[in-house]
Specification:
By secondary structure, the chain is of the alpha+beta class. The protein contains 4 helices and 8 strands. The protein has helices at 4-12, 53-62, 91-110, 115-122, and strands at residues 14-20, 26-30, 34-37, 42-47, 64-70, 76-87, 128-139, 149-150. Strands 1, 2, 3, 4, 5, 6, 7 and 8 form an 8-stranded antiparallel β-sheet that branches. β5 and β6 (76-87) form a beta hairpin. The chain is globular, with a radius of gyration of 15 Å. The N and C termini lie close together (5 Å).
Length: 153
Amino acid sequence: MIPEVVLNVLSTGMGGLGSANKDLIPSQCNAKGTHVVRNKNIITIYVRRDEAERLISDFNETGRIAYFASSPAQEAYQFKGQFLKLKELEDNDLDLSRTWRKGLEEVFKSFDMPEENINNYLGGDPDVGIEMEIEKIFNQTPGPNASKEIEIE
Protein backbone atom coordinates (compact mmCIF):
# COMPACT_ATOMS: atom_id res chain seq x y z
CA MET A 1 0.00 0.00 0.00
CA ILE A 2 1.24 3.49 -0.83
CA PRO A 3 2.31 5.08 2.50
CA GLU A 4 0.13 7.84 3.93
CA VAL A 5 3.13 10.17 4.19
CA VAL A 6 3.41 10.56 0.39
CA LEU A 7 -0.28 10.76 -0.55
CA ASN A 8 -0.75 14.54 -0.31
CA VAL A 9 2.27 15.34 -2.47
CA LEU A 10 1.35 12.56 -4.90
CA SER A 11 -2.20 13.90 -5.26
CA THR A 12 -1.59 17.66 -5.21
CA GLY A 13 2.07 18.33 -6.04
CA MET A 14 3.83 19.19 -9.25
CA GLY A 15 5.03 16.13 -11.09
CA GLY A 16 7.03 14.82 -13.95
CA LEU A 17 7.27 11.49 -15.73
CA GLY A 18 10.46 9.99 -17.00
CA SER A 19 11.78 6.93 -18.78
CA ALA A 20 14.47 5.89 -21.24
CA ASN A 21 14.60 3.79 -24.36
CA LYS A 22 16.66 0.60 -24.71
CA ASP A 23 19.71 2.77 -25.57
CA LEU A 24 19.17 4.66 -22.26
CA ILE A 25 18.29 7.93 -23.98
CA PRO A 26 15.96 9.68 -21.50
CA SER A 27 12.53 11.15 -22.12
CA GLN A 28 10.25 13.19 -19.87
CA CYS A 29 7.13 15.34 -19.64
CA ASN A 30 5.16 17.25 -17.02
CA ALA A 31 2.12 15.73 -15.37
CA LYS A 32 -1.35 17.27 -15.31
CA GLY A 33 -2.43 15.56 -12.09
CA THR A 34 -2.80 12.02 -10.76
CA HIS A 35 -5.29 9.46 -9.55
CA VAL A 36 -4.13 7.12 -6.79
CA VAL A 37 -5.35 3.57 -6.14
CA ARG A 38 -3.54 3.31 -2.82
CA ASN A 39 -4.31 -0.29 -1.87
CA LYS A 40 -3.06 -1.58 -5.24
CA ASN A 41 0.08 0.64 -5.48
CA ILE A 42 -1.21 2.02 -8.77
CA ILE A 43 -1.24 5.62 -9.93
CA THR A 44 -2.57 7.10 -13.12
CA ILE A 45 -0.66 10.16 -14.26
CA TYR A 46 -2.53 12.55 -16.54
CA VAL A 47 -0.62 13.95 -19.51
CA ARG A 48 -1.14 15.42 -22.95
CA ARG A 49 -0.41 12.75 -25.57
CA ASP A 50 1.37 15.26 -27.84
CA GLU A 51 3.80 16.07 -24.99
CA ALA A 52 4.35 12.41 -24.08
CA GLU A 53 4.81 10.70 -27.46
CA ARG A 54 8.43 9.74 -26.86
CA LEU A 55 7.70 8.63 -23.30
CA ILE A 56 4.88 6.40 -24.45
CA SER A 57 7.19 4.84 -27.03
CA ASP A 58 9.82 4.24 -24.32
CA PHE A 59 7.24 2.71 -21.95
CA ASN A 60 6.13 0.33 -24.67
CA GLU A 61 9.75 -0.57 -25.41
CA THR A 62 11.11 -1.04 -21.87
CA GLY A 63 8.11 -1.11 -19.54
CA ARG A 64 9.97 1.07 -17.03
CA ILE A 65 8.64 4.33 -15.62
CA ALA A 66 9.63 6.91 -13.02
CA TYR A 67 7.43 9.64 -11.58
CA PHE A 68 8.58 12.58 -9.49
CA ALA A 69 6.18 14.56 -7.28
CA SER A 70 7.06 17.69 -5.31
CA SER A 71 5.23 20.22 -3.18
CA PRO A 72 6.10 23.94 -3.21
CA ALA A 73 7.46 23.39 0.33
CA GLN A 74 10.19 21.17 -1.19
CA GLU A 75 8.72 17.86 0.02
CA ALA A 76 9.49 15.47 -2.83
CA TYR A 77 9.29 11.79 -3.75
CA GLN A 78 10.32 9.59 -6.65
CA PHE A 79 8.24 6.59 -7.67
CA LYS A 80 9.74 3.83 -9.80
CA GLY A 81 7.80 1.04 -11.33
CA GLN A 82 6.20 -0.73 -14.23
CA PHE A 83 4.16 0.82 -17.02
CA LEU A 84 0.79 -0.91 -17.11
CA LYS A 85 -1.26 0.77 -19.82
CA LEU A 86 -2.58 3.92 -21.42
CA LYS A 87 -5.98 4.90 -20.10
CA GLU A 88 -8.60 6.88 -21.96
CA LEU A 89 -9.79 9.65 -19.66
CA GLU A 90 -13.28 9.85 -18.25
CA ASP A 91 -15.07 12.87 -16.79
CA ASN A 92 -13.91 12.07 -13.25
CA ASP A 93 -10.27 12.01 -14.46
CA LEU A 94 -10.67 15.45 -16.00
CA ASP A 95 -12.31 16.68 -12.79
CA LEU A 96 -9.34 15.43 -10.76
CA SER A 97 -6.90 17.09 -13.16
CA ARG A 98 -8.76 20.41 -13.06
CA THR A 99 -8.87 20.33 -9.25
CA TRP A 100 -5.12 19.65 -9.23
CA ARG A 101 -4.57 22.56 -11.63
CA LYS A 102 -6.66 24.98 -9.53
CA GLY A 103 -4.63 24.08 -6.46
CA LEU A 104 -1.33 24.76 -8.20
CA GLU A 105 -2.66 27.96 -9.77
CA GLU A 106 -3.42 29.25 -6.26
CA VAL A 107 0.06 28.33 -5.04
CA PHE A 108 1.72 30.04 -8.01
CA LYS A 109 -0.46 33.13 -7.58
CA SER A 110 0.60 33.33 -3.92
CA PHE A 111 4.19 33.60 -5.22
CA ASP A 112 3.06 36.48 -7.51
CA MET A 113 3.77 34.42 -10.62
CA PRO A 114 2.27 36.12 -13.69
CA GLU A 115 -0.85 34.45 -15.10
CA GLU A 116 0.84 33.93 -18.46
CA ASN A 117 3.69 31.98 -16.83
CA ILE A 118 1.22 29.88 -14.85
CA ASN A 119 -0.69 28.98 -18.01
CA ASN A 120 2.52 28.22 -19.90
CA TYR A 121 3.69 25.87 -17.16
CA LEU A 122 0.39 24.10 -16.52
CA GLY A 123 -0.72 23.92 -20.16
CA GLY A 124 -4.04 22.54 -21.31
CA ASP A 125 -6.17 19.64 -20.15
CA PRO A 126 -4.71 16.14 -20.34
CA ASP A 127 -6.05 13.69 -22.90
CA VAL A 128 -4.58 10.38 -21.73
CA GLY A 129 -3.64 8.64 -18.50
CA ILE A 130 -0.47 6.65 -17.97
CA GLU A 131 -1.07 3.90 -15.46
CA MET A 132 1.88 2.59 -13.46
CA GLU A 133 2.42 0.08 -10.69
CA ILE A 134 4.73 1.45 -8.01
CA GLU A 135 7.58 -0.87 -7.04
CA LYS A 136 9.80 1.57 -5.10
CA ILE A 137 9.43 4.99 -3.50
CA PHE A 138 12.36 7.24 -2.63
CA ASN A 139 12.39 10.32 -0.42
CA GLN A 140 13.77 13.22 -2.45
CA THR A 141 13.12 15.94 0.14
CA PRO A 142 16.35 17.80 0.92
CA GLY A 143 17.77 16.69 4.26
CA PRO A 144 19.12 13.64 6.05
CA ASN A 145 16.60 11.21 4.51
CA ALA A 146 17.12 12.30 0.91
CA SER A 147 17.50 9.35 -1.47
CA LYS A 148 16.38 6.83 1.14
CA GLU A 149 13.84 4.25 0.08
CA ILE A 150 10.42 4.45 1.73
CA GLU A 151 8.86 1.13 2.55
CA ILE A 152 5.67 0.31 0.69
CA GLU A 153 3.19 -0.97 3.27
